[in-house]
Amino acid sequence: IEPVRLADYRPTHYAIRTVALDFRLDPEATEVTADLRLERRDGTAPGTPLVLDGDELELVAVEIDGARLKPDAYEAGPSQLTLLDPPAGAFTLRIVTRIAPALNTKLMGLYRTSGNYCTQCEAEGFRRITYFLDRPDVLAVYRTRIEARKAEAPYLLANGNRIEGGDIPGTDRHYAVWHDPHPKPSYLFALVGGDFDVLRDRFVTMSGRDVALEIYVEHGKVERAAYAMDSLKRSMKWDEEVFGLEYDLDIFMIVAVSDFNMGAMENKGLNVFNDKYVLAARETATDADYSHIEGVIAHEYFHNWTGNRITCRNWFQLCLKEGLTVFRDQEFSSDQRSRAVKRIMDVKLLKSHQFPEDAGPLAHPVRPETYREINNFYTATVYEKGAEVVRMLKTMLGPDGFRAGMDLYFKRHDGDAATIEDFLAAFADATGRDLTQFMLWYRQAGTPELAVSTDYDPGAKTLRLTFEQTCPPSPGQAAKEPMAIPVRFGLVGPNGEDMDYGSIEGVAVAGDVMLLTAPRHEVVVSGVGARPVPSLLRGFSAPVKLSVNLDTDDQLFLLAHDADPFNRWQAAQTLATRTLVEGSKALGDGRAMSIDTRLIDAYRQIAADDRLDHAFRALVLGVPGEADIAREIGSEVDPDRVYAARETLRRAIATGAEDVLAGLHDGLALSGAYAPDAASAGRRSLRNMALELLLLVGGPDAEARVVAHYEAADNMTDRYAALSALVLNGSTAAGAMLADFYRRFEGDSLVIDKWFVVQAMAPVAATLDRVRALTGHPAFSFTNPNRFRALVTTFATGNQTQFARADGAGFGFVADMVLDMDKRNPQVAARLLSAFRSWRALEGRRRAQAEVELKRVAAAPGLSRDVADIAARCLQ
Ligand code: B3K
Ligand code: ZN
C-alpha cells in the first residue's frame, strides 16, 4: 500500500459549496441521492477530471444539471467515481447510490445498531454513503432529508436545525429535513433514524440564546442519561467562562448506541456516543465510569469549536483538534474535580499508554508525516501527548499569553481547515514569542530523556543543576534535535517548605519555570541558604523521562513534604519503580527481592495521613503497573518476574500497613445517598484500595471481608472492587461471586462487559482457556465491539503475564482473533493487533513467539489496510 505524505498535500481541484442529501432508509437497500453544488477552484484548468472517493458503493445514477451522464463521460467503480470532463462553470452533480446498512459490519458509514440506523464518518466513512471529496478541507453547507417507515424509525435526526418534516400521505412513511448552516467537512456528517427514549433539557447561552438539549437512548434507559445531561450543561457553561466560546445552533443532540467502534463522535449538533459514555446509574456504573462520561461528553462538546468551527486541513493535522480538545476536557475535569488527582490520573495514562507507544515500532510524531491508514493514528500520541504539548504552551506562555493565543486562533481561523503551523502562529503572534523550536514537539517522535545531576555547595550557597536532554531514535527518525522543555521547579528546604533563592544563571527562567532549549544546561542557583531537595518537573510540566541523582532519603523527603502533590506521588512512583526493577532482576537471578523498610513506612504514613485527600492517598498506594515497570526495564522483559516483583511489593505494603488499612476499610464506609462526586468517589477509592491490599495479607478474615464488602455494596464501584479483588487474586470464592454477579446483571450489557473484563484480566495460567471458552458463551458477541473488546482486547492489553505466556499460546490466540475480526471490522482488529507493539522488549523466547504470530498475521491473505499497516510497522 502506498503511503500518503504530508509533503504531497494539495488542495482539491474543485470545491463543493452545498450538499443536499436525500435518504430513503431501508436495512438492505437504502437509496441515497446526493446533489452536490460544485465549482472549479481558481488555478484549476478547465476540463480537469473530478475524482470522487467511494468505498464499497453501488452507483445507481449520475446526472449533471438534471441531465443523465453519457457512459463515456465518467468512470465508476466501488471506490471511485471520475467525471472525465466536468463543466467549466459551477454545476450540480446528482449521484444516486444504494447501500446496505444491515450488511455494514465495519461500522463505518451508515449501519444498523439495535434495530436503529446510525452513521460514523470520521475519518473516511462518508465515502461509504456517497461518492465525495471525502477529506477534511472540503467544507460545505448540508441539507439532509431522511425518509423512513414511521414504525421503524419514529425519530429522524441529522446535523443542524430541523426545518421541515411530517407524514408522507397515503404511505406508512414519514420524513424530516435538517439544515446545518455551518460549512463542515464530510467527516462531521451524521444521520440517525430509529426508536428511542429522549431526555430533554435546555441551556441558555451567555448571549441569552435558548438551546434545546436532547439525549436519545434505548427504551427504558432515560434515567441513566441524567449524569450525561448534567455534564453537558456544565461543559457548555465552562467553555463560555474559560474560553468565551458559545454554542451556535438551536439544538444539541446526543444519541447513545450500543455498537460503536470507539468512544464517541463530535458530529455537528448530533454527537453519536458509545452508550458506555452516556449511561450511568449507581447500581451499574463505577465512579470511573461517571468520570469518563463527564470527560467524554465534555470532549465531544468542546470539539464544536476545536474541530468543527476550526477543522483540520488534512488528517496529518489530527492533533490540531484532538490534542487540543483533550487538553480542554482535562482542564474541565480538573476544574470540576480535584486538579491534583486529575493530573496524576492523566499522567498515569500517558506513561502507561503513550510512553510505550513512543518507545516501540508504532512510535510516530504528534503530527505524523506519513500514513497508510489514518484510522491507525487515533493514538495515545496524537491525543494524550498532543494534549501535553498544548499544556506546555500554556506553561511557557502563562495563562494570559495562552488565552490571547487561543483568542487569536479562533478569530483568525473560524470557518477554516487549519494546520498546526496556523495554531502555533496564533500564539507566536499574540505573545511575540518565537515557537520555532517548540514545533519540534509536533515533528519529533520518541520520549525525550532528561538527566539531571544536582550538587549543593554550602560554602558558596549555590545549587548547581546540570540538565542533559537526549531523545532515542524512532521509526524514520534516527537523530533528534534538542527540544524546548519547560521545567517547573521548587527547592524544598530542610523544614519541608519551598525555599527562597537568589538569581539563576544558565537558563531562561519565568516564575517557577526554567525553559531548557539546549542539549545541556549548567544551571547555577545562588543564594540558597541550606541544602535543598530540588523538586523538578512539578505537575509533570513536560512529557519527558526524568532521572535525577536523588537518593532514597531525598525521594522520601519529597514524598513526605513536597508542596507539589504531583511530585509527592511521583516520588513514591520513583522509589517503587527502583525497587521493582531491581526486584524483578533479583527474582530472575534467583535472589530475594529487597524492599527498604523506610519505603513501607512512608506508604503507611501516607495511608494514615488524614490531612490528605482520600483519592490522592489511594493513588500513592497504587504501585506502578506491570506495563510501566516493563517500560522502565526496557529490554529482555520477563512479565512473570515483573508480576512477581509487583505482588511482592504490594504484599509488603499491605503487611506493613495492615492495621491502618483495616482502619480505613472500617472507617470510610459511606452511609446515606450515593453521589458520584469527586469527594465521595475519592473516599470509595481509598477504601477499596485498602480492601484490595488487605486481601493480599491473606487469611480467611481477608476473604470474608471482601465477600461482606461485595454483599453490602449499594453501588457498582464497591461491588466491582470486591469482585475484581477476588478474581485477580485468584481467590477460591471468586467463582461463586462471578456467578452471582452474572445473575444479578444478566440483562445489563454494560455490566456484563465488566464481567468479561475481570475474567480476561486474571493473571493465572487458566485464563487463556477461560477466555477461549468465554468466546462461546451465549452472552459473547463478535459483532458488538464493546463485548469483543471487554474479553479479547482486555486479555491482550490488560493481562501482561497471560498474553505474553512463555509458550506463545496467548499471542497465538490473539493473532487468531485479529484475523477473524479483520473480516468483519478492521478497525477493531487493528486496535487489537497493536497490543503486540512492545514485543521487541520481551525476553528471547517470548520475543520469538510474538514474531512468529506477527509474521503469520502479516502473511495472511486479504488483510485490511488497517491490520496490514499495524503488522508491517510492528515488524519493521
Ligand atoms: N473524533 C472521534 C474519533 C474518530 C475516530 C475515527 N477512527 C472522537 C473524538 O476524538 O472525539
Ligand atoms: Zn476528539
TrEMBL record:
Where would I find the Aminopeptidase N-like N-terminal domain in this sequence? 90-188
The record places domain Peptidase M1 alanyl aminopeptidase C-terminal at 553-876
Q: Which GO terms describe its biological process?
A: proteolysis
Q: Which GO terms describe its molecular function?
A: alanyl aminopeptidase activity; metallopeptidase activity; zinc ion binding
Catalyzed reaction equations: Release of an N-terminal amino acid, Xaa-|-Yaa- from a peptide, amide or arylamide. Xaa is preferably Ala, but may be most amino acids including Pro (slow action). When a terminal hydrophobic residue is followed by a prolyl residue, the two may be released as an intact Xaa-Pro dipeptide
Question: Which InterPro entries does this UniProt record tie to the protein?
Answer: Aminopeptidase_N-like_N, Aminopeptidase_N-like_N_sf, PepN_Ig-like_sf, Peptidase_M1, Peptidase_M1_dom, Peptidase_M1_pepN, Peptidase_M1_pepN_C, Peptidase_M1_pepN_C_sf
Keyword Zinc assigned: yes
Keyword field: Aminopeptidase, Hydrolase, Metal-binding, Metalloprotease, Protease, Zinc
Using the record's annotation, list all stretches that form the Peptidase M1 alanyl aminopeptidase Ig-like fold domain: 446-547
- Swiss-Prot/TrEMBL cofactor(s): Zn(2+)
Which ranges carry the Peptidase M1 membrane alanine aminopeptidase domain? 227-439
Q: What is its EC number?
A: 3.4.11.2
Q: Which Pfam families match?
A: DUF3458, DUF3458_C, Peptidase_M1, Peptidase_M1_N
The text of the family note is: Belongs to the peptidase M1 family.
Q: What is this protein called?
A: Aminopeptidase N
Lineage at the top is:
Bacteria, Pseudomonadati, Pseudomonadota, Alphaproteobacteria, Hyphomicrobiales
